[in-house]
Amino acid sequence: MKVLLIGGTGNIGQRILKEALDKEYEVTAVQRKPEALELKHPNLTVIKGDLLNEAELPSLIAGKDVVVSAISLYAGLSPEQFKKAHQNLIDALKKQPQTRIIAVGGGTNNEVAPGVRMLDVEDIMKNIPEEYKPSIFAHGEVQKLYEASGLENWTYFNPAAMIQAGERTGKFRLGTTNLVADENGASSISFEDYAVALVDEIKNKQFVGKPFTIGY
Fold it and tell me: Quick check: 203 pLDDT over 80?
């Protein structure tokens, strides 16, 4: 399995990279600053690339079975650049439809009622710090880009409402559009278990052409 990983140095991306290498996948990590990824592994190739450069995307994707996008607005991208990067990916993948895309999403894309996402609920959003909201709304718009793209081979993987560093337990629950929460209403997942589920989805192909989510 040949994987193109974009954003392999972030909190989620570095865990995805480890999981993919542990599964013995052949990983090409695309970085705007390749020197930032210091990991060495026989199945890992690190190259320079930028999703905002439309011209180079087809050659980056060529020959890959799956593209995993773990790019984040917290890595210096503006909301407009984040959306443009994903639109560039969509445009490139339309020319190579055999290649799958799995994109790291946002927890507030999950629904708390039929057709009602967390990011649409004022009582939820008023308790979220303002600095997080540009990322939240950008993820909401990007999921809609994939849904309206006409691509068949896409997956948008939204985490639980709370995601942070923790343990790799391998024990979690998956859902589609509805927030996954425990009996007390808490919705959480570790970076580590999120990465397990994402890399498992590469093989399982359970959520092709749709979003999915995770929680304990």
Answer: yes
